[in-house]
Amino acid sequence: MYGGPFGLMQKRLMEIVIVLPALAFVGALSGCRDGAPAGTSPAASRPVHYACAAHPLVVSREDGACGECGAALVAQKSVGTYLCVDHFESAGVLPGACGKCGKLLVAIPNVNMWKCTRHPEVMLDGGSACPVCESSLVEVMVGKVWVCTRSLEETLGKEGASGLTALRLQGNGLGFNTEELGFGEGDCGKCGRELLEVTVQVPHGDHNPRHGGVFRMAPDNWHHLEVVAPREGLLRVYFFDNYTRPLEASGFSARYLRATFDEKDGFVDGAEAFELKPSSAAGCLEAAVPDFSFPLHLVIKVVLGGKEERFDFTLRKLGSAAAAPSQPRRLEDSLVIPASAAGIVSELSSRDERVQVLLREQDYKRLFLPAFEAKALALALEKKMAPGEPADRKRGLGRAVKEVVRGAWLLDHFGDQGDRTEVLQQYDVFSSGVKALKALYPAPSDGD
């Protein structure tokens, strides 16, 4: 592991993907267990908390005055985006306490961005198509926080840190000390620098269907369902958590009833129930639907937490017949890490060659594909260093891995901007690290 500030950053920022739990526009919530201690009921997780408008970190269970400025505290919104200052993965859509440390959650502002549902690392301010797979982007809600660039500069360099607009994480905390983090504009409480505004994804910010069906949130505000008819006569149900990450459907018990819709009484349940069973297409439950026609009114009953919950759905069109991956993955998740250090370096070298090809073709939007995989390979190589290795060799490895990780960040950042000058400069950082790692672990000769 690295020492100093970079060690802190690598621990939390090594996953280059901006996916903290995303919260958002959830309308009419009946309670949320996000961020609440285990075993807390939805009703118990809805206390009224008070905060200072000028000092967002000042949150109290009691009405009163701000200890910083003396202004009267105001009740937090009943629904919003709330994060723990020390554990960003502990988040909620309602005022509450962190399930890890008990601190009261702090409200943060929200903004809209555009995301690829197949490649969560693609998060753009605008646009219509994913640069990786060309599928349509969907609008999601993300949160805004303010961070001190001092720690970032060790990883990204001064220019990279100052130009950063999004922290790319995967469900982990930021890795900053509380004093280096703000929930509003201002200066760092530790060094006095002006804080940098960045976006993070936060729970429930992405309620876009993944299969062209109808998406619903369960009463527990954690489970989510998508119901879709991929073709005539077939019904499928997919399950997701509060981050819209797929859940294995075989662990759920569900059935459906055909229904009719009455303008006065609403849904009228049919008499016969049909069991939904695990599908050969992994990741969902399915059942046949006789006498299929649109609009298709259905009552889905699912056992969640030992209680059967009811969901009313009306399907008006066919969804996607193709089964999407059972888990949206970061690009590096599918990467096979070789067992030997020499094998890792060989794979790392091939990613470097791919980056060079994209540079020649000026295809900067796709640089993050091989760059992120190179980052994962470099970090895996670091773990191969034996404890008894000489100190200078350990330092050399640390510097080289740091250059690859930093270079991957910056190739992605400036590649998104299409800034050729910066991209070429940051490739020098990236390639320097690759060359150093190849020198530390030279390829075996044919006679070896």
Textual characterization of the structure:
The chain is an alpha+beta fold and 448 residues long. Among the domains are: 214-315, Immunoglobulin-like (Sandwich); 331-440, Four Helix Bundle (Hemerythrin (Met), subunit A) (Up-down Bundle). The chain is built from six helices and 20 strands. It has helices at residues 4-13, 149-162, 341-361, 368-382, 391-417, 420-440, and strands spanning 50-51, 59-60, 74-75, 82-83, 91-92, 106-107, 110-115, 123-124, 138-147, 181-182, 196-201, 214-217, 224-228, 234-240, 246-247, 254-262, 266-278, 284-288, 296-304, 307-315. The strands form four sheets. Strands 12, 13, 14, 15, 16, 17, 18, 19 and 20 form a nine-stranded antiparallel sheet that branches. Helix 2 crosses helix 5. The relative contact order is 0.11.
Q: Rg to the nearest angstrom?
A: 25 Å
Largest sheet: 9 strands, antiparallel
The CATH homologous superfamily name of the domain at 331-440 equals: Oxygen-evolving enhancer protein 3 (PsbQ), four-helix up-down bundle
The CATH C-level class name of the domain at 331-440: Mainly Alpha
Strand content: 15-25%
Order of helices and strands: HEEEEEEEEEHEEEEEEEEEEEHHHH
* Number of helical regions: 6
Shape descriptor reads globular
The total strand number stands at 20
Helix content: 10-25%
Oligomer: single chain
